[in-house]
Structure formats: structure tokens, C-alpha cells
Amino acid sequence: MAFPLNWQGVGALRIEFAGLSGPLGDFLPEIYIDHIVFVPGPCNPPAVLLPPVSTVYLDQSNFITVMGNGACDTYLWQVDTGIGFADITDQVNYSGITSNALLLWNADTSYNGNLYRCIVTNSCGLSDTTNPTLLEVVECTFQMSISTGLPSDTVCDQSQVLLTASQADSYSWSTDASTQSTFVYVSRQPYTVSVTGDSAGCMSTANITLYPLPPIIVDVS
Fold first, then answer.
1. I need a surface site. Which of 23, 107, 114, 160 has the fewest CB within 10 A?
2. d(CA 120, CA 25)
3. Which domain CATH number covers 160?
4. Which residues in 24-36 are b (16+ Cβ under 10 Å) and which e?
5. Contact (Cβ atoms closer than 8 angstroms) between residue 76 and residue 119
6. How far is Cα 121 from Cα 47, in angstroms, rounded to an integer?
7. For residues 50 and 78, what is the distance between their CA atoms, to the nearest angstrom?
């Protein structure tokens, strides 16, 4: 006797058979698996979107990122510069043209007013196209600075100096520090330190050079 078994689910399938009784006593039936057919479960199209307006900073690298639900396999970015949407193939001014995040390298004013959208496809072959997002290129007005709290950049030789950067969301110092303030050690020669700050995606870098005072020579002759 043969019978089909239909099952949908995730994980392992376990089948148990109870012992059967016959003229010669209890026995277990022999089980033969003829073939297994895997039928995929229901697949829903992705649901993706972009913000109506994407603001990026002039001459800086910025991302436009797809938001949405569902696992997606392929991404195809398109741009409309005023003559209709076309696939982005330029990999000099763009990066990530087949990912969920499109990177614009050093956006200039020629990008301003462009429309971008992304066509997203999942493993079932179902697709969704995001709404267009309008690119707005603005000038970054954030300016990073470094303060020592001292009268000048000339400091005592072989001394520690506390450097404090202006307010930002994050910091990256040339000394590998990542806080707003950091100590540096100045010894015998000028010491240059830089910090890059990020304020709402606007990046700015500042430098400072500390000059040690010359050693005091005492003539005891």
C-alpha cells in the first residue's frame, strides 16, 4: 500500500509508525521512499521605498539606502537626470549599483535635482520598484576645530597636552582616539595632530601643530 504525504513547514519532518499485529505476532511495516518533491511555500513580493528627498553634502561621498521588508537578492539602481530613468552603469562616480546602498562619490552641483529609484527582486523573481527620491546637494557648513585651552601652540617640552575638538556626532583622530578630547605627548620636536568630525553626515577635518619650548641651558661655568 502506498500513500502520498504532503507537508509544508520549516525544519525536520519526523514520521512515526506504530507496530501492527498479525497472525505471526507484532511487526513493523517496511517503509520505502519513492521520491521526494519539494514545493516552495508562498513567496511575497518585496516592499521597498526611498525617502522623498535625499540630502547630500557638496563634494562629499554620500549613501542613498533602500528601506523595506523582505529578503531581496538583486538591486538595480536607476537615475533620471531630466530625460527619463536609465540604469546606472557609471562605476566612477557611483559605487554599490547592485546593492541596497548607492554611494555617490564627491557629489557636485551637477547631481542636484537628479531623481533616483531602485528595482528590487527577490529569490522568487518577484520585483518592486521604489518611489523616486529627489537628490538635494547642499554645502557643508560644519567646521571642525581643535583647542588646547593654552595661550599658544607652544608648550613645555616632554609634556602631555589635552586636545579638545569642537562638538560633533563622532570623531576620528590621527592618534586613533575616537572621543571629543584626547591627550598627546610632545617631546623635542613639533607634533601635528588631526581630527575628522562627523556632524549629521557632514565631514570636516582640523589640524594642529604643537611646538615644544627649546630646552633651557644653564651655564654653570
1. 23
2. 62
3. 2.60.40.10
4. eeeeeeeeeeeee
5. yes
6. 10
7. 13
The SS3 call for residue 109 is helix
Q: Given this model, what pLDDT does residue 217 score?
A: 73
CA dist 137 and 55 (Å) reads 6
What residue numbers bound the domain in which 150 lies? Answer: 146-212
d(CA 57, CA 135): 10
**What are the Cα distances from residue 47, in Å, to 88, 130, 153?**
21, 8, 56
β-pair type (133-138, 53-57): parallel
Residue type (1 letter), 17: F
How many CB atoms sit inside 10 A of residue 182's CB? 19
Q: C-alpha cell of 180?
A: 571629543
105, 187: one domain: no
Write out the three cell numbers for 186.
Answer: 610632545
Nearest to 77 by CA among 137, 130, 127: 130
Tell me which residues of the chain have a pLDDT lower than 50. Answer: 10
**What per-residue confidence (pLDDT) applies to 30?**
63
